[in-house]
């Protein structure tokens, strides 16, 4: 099952007084019309009985049978969103390569494949985006002002775009390298709940671990790839060479030094997540540590050509 969001072109708030925070439309209460439109039959309590909404999704995003449609209010942007829930059948791939991901703040993703390939995605683009909007919103007279609400809306949209681009890039990379399983850390502990706010008082957006996992899971499933998790215990402090716990090995600037070797600390995390998965799955350990020292770096580049400004971007690999 995948959930799709589309912002409304006709805002129901302008034509209706909707009291609920979410309205669900099941089989008989909606009809998908041609040209990206959907007709909703409203419950008796509303003044209008039917509304027709347009949504912006290209035909290639149409995933199959629509199971239900929801109107959901976001208090963050003060907008109503149309959620279209599709029933999708997923066919998982035959066992292939494994990809392990360490998700973090400085590097939003550090990845390693069981083939030894490694990559890093620095989180700077997202941090910069959050800093910018936080600063601009702080200048507004009130949080309910039109400007503040517009900034919040733009912030959410750009963040969402970034996270979609990130997870799409990771899943495409996985699919292109015959990966059948993507392994991540279990969702718990301080890191998963940590706010960006450690670096300021940016409270509006938490570090988007949950969102990334959710997007990765459904995007991967559509390509037949499973997303599974393993315990995060000691994954950041275990030496890839001697396999000992080495707390003091994490030195300055995200480096890990042990056994006479210097590694990127986040790559060490990904490596250990991979080893833990292989161990739990009863598969032989992967001995490749070469890529840990020099991962391929992928930077997010905003394209500034859209009318709305900094709207879209892609990941590019640096030399
Ligand atoms: Zn060691």
TrEMBL record:
Residues 209-273 form the Cas12f1-like TNB domain. The keyword Nucleus does not apply. Residues 90-190 form the Probable transposase IS891/IS1136/IS1341 domain. GO terms for biological process: DNA recombination; transposition. It holds the Pfam family Cas12f1-like_TNB. The keyword DNA-binding applies. Keywords: DNA recombination, DNA-binding, Transposition. One of its GO terms (molecular function) is DNA binding. In the C-terminal section; belongs to the transposase 35 family. This is Putative transposase. It comes from Thermincola ferriacetica.
